Input
Amino acid sequence: MFYSLLGRVVWFVLKLVLRRKYGPTYVPKSLLAGVTVAVGIAIVVAIQRAARDSD
Output
């Protein structure tokens, strides 16, 4: 429980420091959607190959 809290504190402080140093960076929604779809397809293909190799 303590490590979870510590991890969250470190994460939010790191985000705050980086945003102050570099400014907010926003990824276009279309790019984010494309990357999400590509990762999903890669995971499905990897699962199918693993299932085919295990037979």
